[in-house]
Amino acid sequence: MAKRILVVGGAGYIGAHTAFALGRAGYDALVFDNLSTGRREFLRFGRHIIGDLADRGALDDLFSENAFDAVMHFASRINVGESVADPGKYYRANVADSLNLLEAVRDHGVKHFIFSSSAAVYGLPQGPLTEGHPFSPINPYGKTKAAVEWMLADFSAAYGLKYCALRYFNAAGAAPVASGAKIGEMHEPETHLIPLVLQAARKGESATVFGTDYSTPDGTCIRDYIHVCDLAEAHILAMQRLMSGEQSAAFNLGGGRGFSVREVIEAARRVTEINVAMREAPRRPGDPDTLVSVNAKARTELGWEPRYADLEYIVRTAWDWERERSRSLTFEQS
Question: pTM of this prediction?
Answer without folding.
Answer: 0.95
